Each structure stands twice: as structure tokens, then as C-alpha cells.
Automatic annotation (TrEMBL):
Residues 24-106 form the TfoX N-terminal domain. This is TfoX N-terminal domain-containing protein. Pfam families: TfoX_N. The lineage of its organism: Bacteria, Candidatus Glassiibacteriota. It comes from Candidatus Glassbacteria bacterium RIFCSPLOWO2_12_FULL_58_11. It comes from the Bacteria.
């Protein structure tokens, strides 16, 4: 299957849900992705999906709470460790989405900051 451009609708939804939070949007592989002030990726849009980074306990809780969610695999068979994709209906439930995005941001912000490349 050919690569698809990221969903403009999901990109706008995600940017709106993160407005006012301490994060930075950067294009990563041509897709909008959001980073902590320390440079850690915590969420973004890939094709027609939102993805987010969660701690292990949060991932387990998320996968159980939202049937249809899965590990994030930007390349088939190559999941990104710590990242999940919510089911398609979650973005429509903005309050729940914002709660999980905040958890994602908090977790990524707790990780060591990335060193700046020279």
C-alpha cells in the first residue's frame, strides 16, 4: 500500500487539542508531530491516525479501555515502542482525547531531554 498524506482534519484536531500546552509542532517524515520542550516526541498524525506515547501502565490501561486501539506501526511489522494508535472514534470524543494527550505529554516530559545536535 502506498504512503498517504497525513489527514488535515486530524492534524487540525490535534493542534487544537494541544493549544495552550507546553509543546512544539515539527514536521517529522512530512507529518505533524509534537515534541516536549526537552525534545521528546509524544504524539502526532501519521496518515489517517493519531499516535501517542504512553508509559507502560498507561498503555495497558489505554489498550484495555479502547477496543480497536493498537501499537503504532508506521512500517508494517515494525511497531514503535511505547506508542499507540487510538481507535477511529476516540478523536470524536475530544475530552477523552485531551486527557490521554495530556498523559502522553506528561510521560514524555518526564523522560531525559534530548541533547541538541550540533
Amino acid at each position: 500500500m502506498a504512503w498517504q498524506k497525513p489527514s488535515a482534519q486530524l492534524s487540525g484536531l490535534l493542534a487544537g487539542a494541544l493549544a495552550g500546552l507546553a509543546c512544539e509542532m515539527r514536521l517529522t517524515f512530512g507529518c505533524p508531530a509534537f515534541y516536549t520542550p526537552g525534545g521528546n516526541l509524544f504524539c502526532g498524525v501519521f496518515e489517517n491516525n493519531i499516535f501517542m506515547r504512553l508509559s507502560e501502565p498507561d498503555r495497558e490501561q489505554f489498550l484495555q479501555a479502547f477496543p480497536g486501539s493498537a501499537a503504532f506501526e508506521p512500517m508494517k511489522g515494525k511497531p514503535m515502542r511505547e506508542y499507540v494508535v487510538p481507535p477511529p472514534e476516540l478523536p470524536a470524543e475530544l475530552e477523552k482525547l485531551e486527557l490521554w494527550l495530556k498523559r502522553s505529554l506528561d510521560y514524555a516530559a518526564s523522560l531525559p531531554a534530548k541533547k541538541k545536535k550540533k
